[in-house]
TrEMBL record:
PANTHER family: GALACTOKINASE-RELATED, MEVALONATE KINASE/GALACTOKINASE. This is GHMP kinase. Pfam families: GHMP_kinases_N. It comes from the Bacteria. The keyword Kinase applies. Keywords: ATP-binding, Kinase, Nucleotide-binding, Transferase. Residues 92-176 form the GHMP kinase N-terminal domain. Belongs to the GHMP kinase family. GalK subfamily. InterPro entries: GHMP_kinase_C_sf, GHMP_kinase_N_dom, Ribosomal_Su5_D2-typ_SF, Ribsml_uS5_D2-typ_fold_subgr. One of its GO terms (cellular component) is cytosol. GO terms for molecular function: ATP binding; galactokinase activity.
Length: 346
C-alpha cells in the first residue's frame, strides 16, 4: 500500500457519565464490592474528527495541535509498549496499537486528527475516544470484522497500558450518542440502551480548574481495595449499594421522561459522593469550583439539579435545565457572570 491510499473519515465522540462514576472499576473487585457496578452514560456532541489511511511499514499520527510533534514509528510491538507506559501525549495511541498488533496483522497506518472539540482532562473521556478511534481505524482499514464491543475491549486494554487506571465505562463512546445502562460484574460488562421518554436539556460546564485524574483513580482504588477504616468502608458503600439504588431510579425516570426526578437524583448522588468518596482524595475532590457553580443562586430556578462529571473534581459539571429557554438563560448566566464556557447536550 502506497502513501497515495484513500483517506477514510472517522468521528468518535466523547462520553458523559450521567450517574455512577467510578462504578466500572469498583465493580471489577467483586470480592470487595457490595454489588456489581452500575452507571448511565451517553456519547457527547463533541469528539474527534480524523482522517486515516493504510501505510506500509510505518505508523504515523498527527495531532491538530501545532506544538505536538507527529508520532512516526515502525509497527513494533515492544516500542509501542514502551511509549504507552511512558505516559506521554501519544501513549493512548501507542497502547491501543500494541494491543491490536497482538492479534491482528496490521502493517501500518496514518492518522491525521483534523479537529477535536472535546476538552482534555475534563471527564469527557477524550483519552478513551482516542483509543476507540485507533481501534476503529484499524478495523475499518483492514476489514477486521470487529463489532463495537471488540473495539471497546481493544481500546480498554490499550489504555490500561498507560499510567491511566481507567475502568470499562469510558469506551462506551464507541456506541455514539446513545444513552446506555451499564453493569460491571467482575470482568463481565452488560450494555442496555435506554429509550428516553421525554426531552432532557443538559448543560455541560467547563470549570476551567485543575484536575489530576490519575491521582484521583490511584487514591480511590487504594482506599477501595485496602482501606479498612471509615473512608474505605464509605467508598465501598457509595460505589456499591447506594449507587445501585440511585441508578435504577434514574433509569426509570429517564424512560418515563421525568426530568425533575432525574435532577433530584443528581443532587442526591453528588451529596453521597461528597460525603463518602471525596475524603479518599481530598486534594482533588473538594472541588471548590464545582460547588460554587452548583450552589450559585441565580441558577437555582433554572435547573432541576447538577453534579460533577467523570472522575469528578474541578474539571466539568453537568446541569439539567428545566427547559430549553431555561438552558439558554443558564448558559448565558454562567458564561457572562462566572466566565465559564458551556456545551449543550440533548
Amino acid at each position: 500500500m502506497t502513501d497515495d491510499s484513500e483517506w477514510l473519515n472517522l468521528f468518535v465522540p466523547g462520553r458523559l457519565c450521567l450517574f455512577g462514576e467510578h462504578s466500572d472499576w469498583a465493580g471489577s473487585y467483586r470480592h470487595l464490592a457490595e454489588t456489581p457496578g452500575y452507571c448511565i452514560a451517553v456519547g457527547t456532541d463533541g469528539g474527534i474528527y480524523a482522517r486515516v489511511r493504510k501505510r506500509d511499514g510505518i505508523i504515523v499520527a498527527c495531532s491538530h495541535l501545532p506544538h505536538i510533534e507527529p508520532l512516526c514509528i515502525a509497527p513494533d510491538s515492544a516500542e509501542l509498549l514502551s511509549i504507552a507506559k511512558a505516559g506521554g501525549f501519544w501513549s493512548y495511541v501507542a497502547g491501543t496499537l500494541h494491543e491490536i498488533l497482538q492479534s491482528y496483522p496490521i502493517s501500518g497506518l496514518e492518522i491525521k486528527c483534523d479537529r477535536m472539540d472535546l476538552p482534555l482532562k475534563k471527564g469527557l473521556s477524550s483519552s478513551a475516544a482516542v483509543c476507540i478511534l485507533v481501534a476503529r481505524a484499524c478495523n475499518e482499514l483492514y476489514k477486521l470484522g470487529l463489532d463495537k464491543r471488540d473495539e471497546m475491549e481493544l481500546a480498554y486494554r490499550g489504555e490500561t497500558l498507560t499510567p491511566s487506571r481507567c475502568g470499562r465505562m469510558d469506551q462506551i463512546c464507541a456506541y455514539g450518542q446513545v444513552p446506555t445502562f451499564l453493569t460491571f460484574d467482575g470482568e463481565d460488562l452488560a450494555i442496555e440502551t435506554i429509550p428516553l421518554g421525554g426531552l432532557f436539556y443538559y448543560l455541560i460546564v467547563d470549570l476551567q480548574g485543575n484536575k489530576d485524574t490519575v491521582t484521583i483513580l490511584r487514591d480511590l482504588n487504594n482506599q477501595f481495595t485496602n482501606g479498612e477504616g471509615a473512608i474505605g468502608e464509605g467508598i465501598r458503600r457509595a460505589l456499591g449499594s447506594l449507587n445501585q439504588q440511585i441508578v435504577y431510579q434514574v433509569r426509570a425516570a429517564l424512560i418515563s421522561g421525568d426530568a425533575r426526578r432525574v435532577g433530584e437524583l443528581m443532587v442526591e448522588a453528588q451529596t453521597i459522593f461528597d460525603r463518602l468518596v471525596a475524603p479518599a482524595c481530598p486534594s482533588q475532590l473538594q472541588a471548590p469550583k464545582l460547588h460554587q457553580l452548583l450552589e450559585y443562586p441565580p441558577l437555582q430556578e433554572l435547573i432541576w439539579g447538577g453534579k460533577g462529571v467523570g472522575s469528578q473534581g474541578d474539571g466539568t459539571a453537568q446541569l439539567l435545565a428545566r427547559g430549553p429557554e431555561e438552558r439558554l438563560l443558564a448558559q448565558s448566566t454562567i458564561e457572562s457572570e462566572l466566565g465559564l464556557p458551556c456545551l449543550s447536550l440533548f
